[in-house]
């Protein structure tokens, strides 16, 4: 199972800067800041947004 990483950590581990990451994704840097502020995560090089908290079983 692939491990989830917060977007900010993913960028830190794989790119020189948020600006470089933005350029590679063909978005403007403010878009990356919005993703980080909204708590987006990366799993296996796929970006995911938080939709809702799930209830525990039971």
Quick recap:
The chain has helices at residues 7-14, 18-25, 29-37; strands spanning 4-6, 41-43, 46-48. With 58 residues, it is α+β, with helices and mostly antiparallel strands. The protein has one domain (4-44).
Structural write-up:
The protein is of the alpha+beta class. The chain has one domain (4-44). It contains 3 helices and 3 strands. It has helices at residues 7-14, 18-25, 29-37, and strands at residues 4-6, 41-43, 46-48. It has a 3-stranded antiparallel β-sheet with strand order 1-2-3. It is elongated and about 45 Å long. The two termini are 24 Å apart.
What attributes characterize this protein structure?
43% helix, 58 residues, alpha+beta, elongated
The whole-number mean of residue pLDDT values reads 93
Q: What portion of residues belong to β-strands?
A: 15-25%
Radius of gyration equals 13 Å
Task: Pick out the low-confidence regions.
Answer: none
Shape: elongated
Strand order of the largest sheet: 1-2-3
Tally of helical runs = 3
Structural class by SSE content: alpha+beta
How far apart lie the N and C ends? 24 Å
Number of strands: 3
Q: Provide the number of structural domains.
A: 1
H/E order of the elements?
EHHHEE
Task: Specify the biggest β-sheet.
Answer: 3 strands, antiparallel
Give the fraction of residues assigned to helices: 40-55%
């Amino acid at each position: 199972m692939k491990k989830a990483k917060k977007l900010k950590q993913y960028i830190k581990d794989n790119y020189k800067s948020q600006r470089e990451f933005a350029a590679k994704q063909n978005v403007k840097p403010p878009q990356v800041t919005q993703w980080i502020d909204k708590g987006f995560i990366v799993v296996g090089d796929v970006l995911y947004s938080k939709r809702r908290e799930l209830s525990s079983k039971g």
